[in-house]
Amino acid sequence: MSRAQFEERLFGTLRWVVIAALLVATLFPFYYMVMLSFRPTGQLLLHPGSLWVPLHEITVSTYKTILEPTSKGGQGLLGMLRNSALVSLGTVVLTLAAAVPGAWAISRLTFVGSRQISALFLAVYLFPATLLAVPLFVMFAKIGLQGSLVGLAVVYIAQTVPVAIYMLKNYFSTVPVSIEEAASLDGCSRLQILWRVVLPLAAPSLMATGLYVFMIAWNEFLFALLFLAATPSKWTVSLGLSQMDNAIEVPTTVLMAGSVVLTIPVIVLFYAAERFLTEGLTTGADKS
């Protein structure tokens, strides 16, 4: 066997070993979380190391407990899901509404510093969130938005608009200017060109950016804790699960059921928009 053949077989085998190890490291925690969510608390205490749930032991009472409102003895996660959905969807819509014209203007207009503007937008993320937490809390408390979902959405929009502009700008730069010029000759204004020509072409990139923004808003914890901790009726899912984790009376199996419920919406959205997501993330990578 030649050295080249040996290296080819070795690296071919190692590739599959690494892939298998990464799959196990990625999927096993999720499997264990789902498995615990269907186990009765008593069986978990008796067999804490078991990696399988017999069919006769499977229970959905954990999901009933986590989703039912607190007035009926549950943990009220359904209300938290509603709060998270309102904040996340509102953040996506308003972020895209601000980012689309901004990104299009940056990709088409020539002005002083136009080449450096993208770096300036990303420079926002050089500042840690903890640095902004206290000033934002004081400011929002003075204007009456502390403890409000609207105030939380405003913070998320401020966080996500820069990266959304950066992502969309890279896509808009790949749209041929000749298409917009042809629309202009047909009598379209700048807004009509953006609405009727550019946005339909940018659907994959809009989907990818929207999903990214949604994921940030859905999973965010620090600002939710800062603004909503004193208002349980406004808690988001991530904040609610954290507060339950600190409570002694909430079983681990119920927490795992809540974690599954928290994860499912993002997974469903990613699978539903997989084609648009892949196309949107890769568009703009080719600079030829």
Automatic annotation (TrEMBL):
It is a multi-pass membrane protein. One of its GO terms (biological process) is transmembrane transport. It is found in: Cell membrane. Residues 81-273 form the ABC transmembrane type-1 domain. The chain crosses the membrane at residues 12-34, 85-107, 119-143, 149-172, 253-273. PROSITE patterns: ABC_TM1. GO terms for cellular component: plasma membrane. It comes from Actinacidiphila yanglinensis. Keywords: Cell membrane, Membrane, Transmembrane, Transmembrane helix, Transport. Belongs to the binding-protein-dependent transport system permease family. This is Carbohydrate ABC transporter membrane protein 2, CUT1 family. InterPro entries: BP-dep_ABC_trans_perm (IPR050901), MetI-like (IPR000515), MetI-like_sf (IPR035906). Pfam families: BPD_transp_1. Its main location: membrane. It comes from the Bacteria.
